[in-house]
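ok, trying the design again with the full structure, not the truncated one.
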């Protein structure tokens, strides 16, 4: 089916890593004895909303959560099922990675329902793995693989952010400083937006691995713990990148201030040298009678020599006071 349809994908997993893709009629005929069912829906479609509310036999609270417009990462247990909301980086064309995409999951021992609004490449990878016989075998493995694939793509975005910070740290010493300020601001903003969802997602995965669910095997909990540790490292890397960007910004501001001070220093020296010269030339340039040397032909040359001597005296004084 096309990806813009309300039924994005549906599989019955065979317990060996593979699965059979289903259509809508096969979903309606499914029973628990047929195997683990996974249904992936576009929750904005009216058909998906009707099926979840009327035919899925889910509790109202669960159905409302699967159809919610906004959701933060969380894990909530209902009897022997889990309601999960996770986030993945947005790698769709023309999108910003930090504008993270929400994935809502209802997981039971024999049935999994997932909903989303925007496309997640991690879910597309999972579909490919199932069709190639390398997908999850149980509901616990499904949750572990979804979380792991989300982390893999997050890792690429975090690494790219760190590389940008490293490049800007070097560029501060060589590039035109004014060009770097918007770049640093963009990196800091991206790091803040990513951490906004990754921090609660870490707590959600921590709770997921500790929930007392019968079908969640110990091996699944161990793998989820590894995913938790990886996510923790990504958050620490984001914090480090944000701090490095802040330090780089301070260095940039310092360099800009130093450049400004150097220019002001040069202008101050030039002004100090020409201030007495300007005073003398202005004084002797007034059009009134009695100007000294007005009747002497060599007065101009003498006056120029006087000005040059005054400049030399000023330079000597400046050097003695270590102003130059």
């Amino acid at each position: 089916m096309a990806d813009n349809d309300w039924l994005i994908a549906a599989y019955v997993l065979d317990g060996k890593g593979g699965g059979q893709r289903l259509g809508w009629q096969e979903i309606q005929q499914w029973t628990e004895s047929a195997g683990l069912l996974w249904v992936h829906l576009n929750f904005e479609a009216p058909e998906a909303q009707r099926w979840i509310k009327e035919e899925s036999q889910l509790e109202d609270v669960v159905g409302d959560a699967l159809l919610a417009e906004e959701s933060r990462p969380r894990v909530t247990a209902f009897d022997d099922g889990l309601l999960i909301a996770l986030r993945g980086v947005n790698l769709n064309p023309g999108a910003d990675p930090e504008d993270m995409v929400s994935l809502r999951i209802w997981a039971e021992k024999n049935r999994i329902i997932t909903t989303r609004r925007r496309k997640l490449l991690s879910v597309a990878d999972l579909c490919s793995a199932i069709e190639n016989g390398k997908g999850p075998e149980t509901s616990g493995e499904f949750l572990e693989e979804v979380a792991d694939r989300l982390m893999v793509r997050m890792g690429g975005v975090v690494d790219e952010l760190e590389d940008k910070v490293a490049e800007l740290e070097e560029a501060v010493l060589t590039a035109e400083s004014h060009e770097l300020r918007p770049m640093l601001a963009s990196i800091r903003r991206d790091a803040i937006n990513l951490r906004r969802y990754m921090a609660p997602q870490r707590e959600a995965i921590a709770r997921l691995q500790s929930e007392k669910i019968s079908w969640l095997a110990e091996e699944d909990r161990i793998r989820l713990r590894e995913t938790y540790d990886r996510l923790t490292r990504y958050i620490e890397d984001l914090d480090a990148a944000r701090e490095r960007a802040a330090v780089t910004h301070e260095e940039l501001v310092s360099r800009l201030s130093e450049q400004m001070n150097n220019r002001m220093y040069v202008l101050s020296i030039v002004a100090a040298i020409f201030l007495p010269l300007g005073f003398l030339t202005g004084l002797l340039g007034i059009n009134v009678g009695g100007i000294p040397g007005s009747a002497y032909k060599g007065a101009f040359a003498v006056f120029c020599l006087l000005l040059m001597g005054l400049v030399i005296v000023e330079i000597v004084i400046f050097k003695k006071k270590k102003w130059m």
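Keeping the full-length input from now on. The longest strand covers residues 81-88.
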